[in-house]
Design goal:
alpha+beta, 6 helices, 3 strands, binds FE2/S2 (inorganic) cluster
């Protein structure tokens, strides 16, 4: 049911933890299952993400997608990090069962929320970044599964 990559990231999640004095922190929740995700970003003066950590009270798919998402945004600029969508994360994991697709949204939303926090703290605007929603239920219903 789960790809080897999903199992690997679930069993050995990368970048678990928190960053003290993070440049940006984003916390989002999934209203349907109650799972919560928090992402910490350490962004340098060139707007490059030097470090990223996550914590979750979430299911296995949420853990695996967050782990992969953190790997994908590390070392990227904040603008490039915006392009790490849940679809890109799922592709990197060789797919998720359809019923678990919504779990991957938590990681994307948490990264966006952390980027938003970073942008607000620094008084900058990140092109294409929208104000995050804490309750991502509406987005779930938009997903075609
Ligand atoms: Fe809640 Fe997966 S079931 S995030």
């Amino acid at each position: 049911m789960y790809s080897e990559k999903v199992m690997d990231h679930f069993n050995n999640p990368r970048n678990v933890g928190e960053i003290e004095n993070a440049s940006g922190v984003g916390t989002v929740g999934n209203a349907k299952c109650g799972d919560i995700m928090r992402i910490y970003l350490d962004v340098d003066e060139n707007q490059i993400i030097q470090d990223v950590k996550f914590k979750t009270f979430g299911c296995g798919a949420a853990v695996a997608t967050s782990s992969m998402a953190t790997e994908l945004v590390k070392g990227k600029s904040v603008n490039e990090a915006l392009k790490v969508t849940n679809k890109a994360v799922m592709e990197a994991l060789d797919g998720l069962p359809p019923i678990k697709v919504h779990c991957s949204l938590l990681a994307e939303e948490a990264i966006h929320a952390a980027l938003w926090d970073y942008a607000e703290k620094n008084g900058i605007k990140i092109e294409g970044l929208e104000k995050p929603v804490n309750d991502i239920e509406e987005k779930i219903e938009d997903e075609d599964y």
